[in-house]
Amino acid sequence: MSSTTDPRAADGTRRRRRGPRTWLATLPLLAFTGLCFGIPLGAMAYGAVTRTDPASGATRVTGEHLARSLQGPYLDSLIGSVQLSALTALVGGVLGVVIAQAVVTSRSAGLRSAALTASGVLANFGGVPLAFAFIATVGISGVVTRLADLTDLGWNLYSFTGLTVVYLYFLIPLMVLVIAPALDGLRPQWREAAQNSGATGRQFWRHVGLPVLAPSLLGGFVLLFGTAFAAHATAAALVGGSVPLVTLKIADALSGNVLTGQENVALALGLDMILIAGLVMAVYLPLQRRSARWLR
Amino acid sequence: MLSSSARRGAAVLLSAAVLTTLSACGAAPDPKSGGADGAKNGVQPGAATSVADFGSLEALAAAAQKEGELNVIALPPDWANYGEIIKAFEAKYKIKVNSENPDASSSDEIAAVKSRKGQKRAPDVLDLGIAFARSGAAENLFAPYKVTAWDKIPAAQKDADGRWTNDYGGYVSIGCDAARITTCPQTFADLLKPEYKGKVALNGNPTKSGSAFGGVYAAALANKGSFADIQPGIDFFGQLKKSGNFIPVESTPATVEKGETPISIDWDYLNAGYADQFKGKGVDWKVAVPTDGVYAQYYSQAVNKDAPHPAAARLWLEFLYGPEGQNLWLKGYARPVLLPGMTQDGTADQAAVAKLPQVQGTPAFPASEELDKAKAILAEKWDKALS
């Protein structure tokens, strides 16, 4: 993006100098990105579109892996992953904002630091330990399940709903962590100004609060979506193959004891995942750029 | 300024470091230049196809000891008694066994062979699921080697060229916690009873785990299916899921001990092992091989064609297929491939045989094409049936 089209340059005070020297400083980052993301991505893309004949060792370009990754159980798993991620990101995002707003506006500094620290810990509590914590509490013979007769109420941890609840356990704290600084950025003066002009609380949120927060909310949603989309260990330990998820399918195809010669389909599925993540980012980035300046 | 001697010291250190690095990730010794390690008749260890190429077992052991090390992969110490097997081999031949990634899968093993071709860290020997043994042989990754006991192994359980040989296996069995379940199920048909609601588990996802796949195959046989037709097995689990009996959580020692998977379909050697493991922990684990769906599956042993320690790899095979190795597997409740012969000539460990779950008849094995077809159908249909 050139500086002439940069919206932030319009006010004249934030114009950035983009000389060759600033370029130099980003070189380590670019080298790191190229090495740690570029090479695996290249290898994945290459594997997704080629096929090596086991007998002769000859490699040829083919679209069959990508085609297979978009049909049958593989397509189901992609759809299942998108559904689960979108649902958990939405619910987690909304609940996270509500909790964060409560924490940010409360006058107790103790509550604030406790909530944020707990969020930091919980947001990173995932994988197999989390799955087992849930199995022990609300699994079929879990402590809470038996005390509260959850099974009679139709509760089943090993289902789409169960998985959603487990995911929310680490997604809500993540949202609190991400959104709290943005909520802090909502100046009290704006609210006072709105009130002085006769706006109701609802009108303030509708015309000032939410538009200003929109990019951060969307950013939070994208982050949550991505986290849920890429999660694997928790789901693997909990539901095995009974909720179709793309990460589980990739694991099946890539490292299993049953299916042979599926590695390239796994790579194609990885490529599909990157495409979906890219699409989500493509929605988020322009919006974020448009209104990020309010929260400086 | 450095003094000249310090500089020289640094140079020596540096070159030593370079040399170590080079040799650490350098190529394996070229089998053709191995000269002194070579076997009789000018055959090199890497090309030896039987102990005769070395002259004698002692000569093979000597060549292996010269190499001094053996790289193994994907051998969990608590699986089929591999922990004790490795210790026994190390003690007997004074060869160091480097055990890498014990929980790896068969495809991880094949990937390690391919990606570390020519390196010293490449695995020497592989313990593979049958599908990977066959595909690996087709890709020409294995060295043909016929162990001394070769003739006693049934033809259906070995590659005609000796590129892989079945080593040990077991039957699909139903493990059941008698402390929590009043009447333990004995057959697949039993599993459908309403009293087992929310209690039946597999030990993995059958598109990934070999034992779970075996469970579905056995269920197919129990429901008028055949080796060529796995669909009835998939339908059976779909029915179990609908009735609420099936829980998709993958049973592990942890879920068994916790009581989350009170009924678990798994290999009989793992289930029998659990029974020992959980004695006195509030779990009374009983094992039954279902009479309506008898399915046995064996793992296969193969030697990496580019093994960095070719003689040690061959010695490992001779050890595994000798009475000592076979009995050690037996001790871990696995059924070694030579068990029928050993029971007849009395070399089998009688106490260990008596502890195995009872099975009638001899196992049959699906042909390659049948297995491939079953897998393709399973990969296609399993998710739908279970969701």
UniProtKB/TrEMBL annotation, chain A:
Domain of life: Bacteria
Subcellular location: Cell membrane
Pfam family, one: BPD_transp_1
Keywords carried by this UniProt record: Cell membrane, Membrane, Transmembrane, Transmembrane helix, Transport
Record field: transmembrane: 23-46, 84-104, 116-140, 160-183, 212-245, 265-287
All residue ranges annotated as the ABC transmembrane type-1 domain in the record: 78-284
Name of this chain's protein: ABC transporter permease
The organism of origin for this protein: Streptomyces spororaveus
From TrEMBL, chain B:
Signal peptide: 1-27
SUPFAM superfamilies: Periplasmic binding protein-like II
Keyword terms of this UniProt record: Signal
Protein name listed in UniProt: ABC transporter substrate-binding protein
Organism: Streptomyces spororaveus
Lineage of origin: Bacteria, Bacillati, Actinomycetota, Actinomycetes, Kitasatosporales
